[in-house]
């Protein structure tokens, strides 16, 4: 498995199915800003509400192979194995990545167990073998998350352009980032604010020695 984090904002995604599993997929996709299309003869009331508010597009019918055309990702969550297989085949024929709930053999990608701290995301996957184990591991790792790691991430992100301008050498730049991360993570506590984190980083940057470029 090739682990990536995908920006789905304004990208079309298909969900086939209208039950509780499909609802979870829809909620996750909407949270990430995806444009969601649902195909299912029947759906839960919550999914109907999404459609009535215009947050998703719902086709109240059976799945058709052409439904996957133009989709960034396809999710299938029905109780019918024949439908699940049909969705997987249609997606793969069109080179669209597909995930079929509880059917690893018909998945091109798997959804990990996710923990979030602001824009810091921790995801654990067992390649579809055991979601329960993935959740267990995620909880164990989540407990080690410092409470304000998202503040650290935001401060580091804001300083990136300055660090790039200051250090032309990639090795020197990487060394600075290692020191910066170690320094901030050692000071993370409930009182750390973004301005404080930025001040620490700027002090480090001002005190840093820039290696001379080789002639």
Largest sheet, strands/sense/barrel: 5 strands, parallel
Distance between the termini: 43 Å
Mean pLDDT: 90
Instruction: Write down how many β-strands occur, each being a DSSP E stretch of 2 or more residues.
Output: 7
What is the number of helical segments per DSSP (H or I, 4+ residues)?
Answer: 7
State Rg: 22 Å
Strand order of the largest sheet: 3-2-1-4-5
Q: State the low-pLDDT regions, or none.
A: none
Topology:
Layout: E1 12-16, H1 20-31, E2 35-39, H2 45-52, E3 56-59, E4 73-76, H3 81-93, E5 97-100, E6 113-117, E7 120-124, H4 131-142, H5 149-166, H6 170-187, H7 194-207
Parallel strand pairs: 1-2, 1-4, 2-3, 4-5
Antiparallel strand pairs: 6-7
